[in-house]
Amino acid sequence: MLDVEGLRSGYSEVAVLQDVSITVGAGQFVSIVGPNGAGKTTLFKTLSGILTPMAGSIRFDGEDLLTVRPAERAHRGIAHVPEGRQVFASLTVLENLEMGAFTRMGRAAWQVNIQRIFAWFPVLRQRADQLAGTLSGGEQQMLAIGRGLASQPKLLMLDEPSMGLAPAMADFVFEKLMEIRKDTGLTILLVEQRVAEALQFADHAYVLETGRVVLDGTRETLQADDRIRQAYLGM
């Protein structure tokens, strides 16, 4: 579904990503892990079109994504749940979800999607008329995920969904992502610092350090790798 080859990207003339290549197959859960400053968020911003790459290619569903305007990429089926949630604080929960459903596919599937989102996250139904800025951090993260799902995506990109959450709430979010994937077959690309959880749920994972992919493999391969065990899993 998503093929990234030789990607070089960053800010102005400063390249953060160097020769990054990743592949995400339809229906897969793929994790990208690594320390702060490794370039994980830069990768997502490039895929979304916020940043224009300096070199490399990005293909999504067989189409050259670099020829698709950033505003059109959501209509192609790419949903980006950003780092820090970034909900619309002055809008209600329901209005935030409606904002997510602006895509052509999201509008067509709105009635079905809103009921499914409320089933996965019942608290959003209870808070439907509440301003998003008054929600707890965990509730805002549920809303950000729900807003992404409301667009009826083919690919859901999640940037650090556990950031700022208590461990129990972070565990809840990961469990819900697995439930959503099981229910829908949705393709998920996750960027996450909680390496143990990111690997636990992944079909395939990439380790990004200083802007380069230094290791990749299946969940079992990386969990057994001594470098990962020592550097990220505390073993």
Structure description:
There is one protein chain. A hairpin with a 2-residue loop joins strand 1 and strand 2 (14-24). The model has no long low-confidence stretch (mean pLDDT 94). The protein contains 11 helices and 10 strands. It is globular. It has helices at residues 40-48, 70-73, 93-100, 104-108, 110-120, 122-126, 137-149, 167-184, 195-200, 219-224, 226-231; strands spanning 2-11, 14-24, 29-33, 55-60, 63-64, 78-81, 155-159, 187-192, 204-209, 212-218. With 235 residues, it is α/β, with parallel strands linked by helices. The chain has a 6-stranded mixed beta sheet, sandwiched between helices. A 4-stranded antiparallel beta sheet has the order 2-1-4-5, with helices on one face.
What features would you highlight for this structure?
235 residues, alpha/beta, 6-stranded mixed sheet, 4-stranded antiparallel sheet, 11 helices, 10 strands, globular
Q: Give the overall shape.
A: globular
Terminal CA distance reads 34 Å
Q: How much helicity do the residues have?
A: 25-40%
- The number of helical segments is 11
Question: Which secondary-structure class do the elements indicate?
Answer: alpha/beta
Q: Provide the low-confidence segments as ranges.
A: none
**Helix and strand succession?**
EEEHEEHEHHHHHEHEHEEHH
Average pLDDT rating: 94
Give a count of the beta strands, DSSP E runs of length 2 or more.
10
In terms of DSSP E residues, the strand content is 25-35%
| Radius of gyration, in angstroms, nearest whole number | 17 Å
- What profile does the largest beta sheet have? 6 strands, mixed
Spatial order of the strands forming the largest sheet: 6-7-8-3-9-10
